[in-house]
Design a protein that fits this description.
Layout: H1 3-10, E1 14-18, H2 22-33, E2 38-42, H3 45-54, E3 60-64, H4 72-80, E4 90-94, H5 99-108, E5 112-115, H6 120-132
Parallel strand pairs: 1-2, 1-3, 3-4, 4-5
Helix pairs in contact: 3-4
Length: 138
Amino acid sequence: MSEGQDHVTWAGKKVLVVDDDMRNVYATSIALESRGMTVLFAENGLTCLSALNEHPDIDLILMDIMLPEMDGYETMRMIRNTPGLESLPIIALTAKAMKEDKEKCLNAGASDYMSKPVKLEQLFDRIQTWLNADRWQV
């Protein structure tokens, strides 16, 4: 898919980046904003849940797993138990790359999983897949 098509598809879409490492937030935000997306961020699971309440129009979440206060696993479980958010796309991003880590993420409610360090083109491909999915038609 050409970059021009990404801009059309992604323009106006809202993504929530949940990560306590501001370097990751900054790099990811710059890359997504360059594609026309609106980027919000939360530094832990609690602020993620607050952001979802304040911004019900979020289209996708990029969720780090190792977070202070409330980790990504618990946060995803809470999101999945919230009416209207059961199918919100969540891509789990974690430094843990073992097969059981992927299964744990998916069982906690992740729609997809990527191990860090994340290559931007691979992340863009995954985002494109989830933005095009028909999971929001309820």
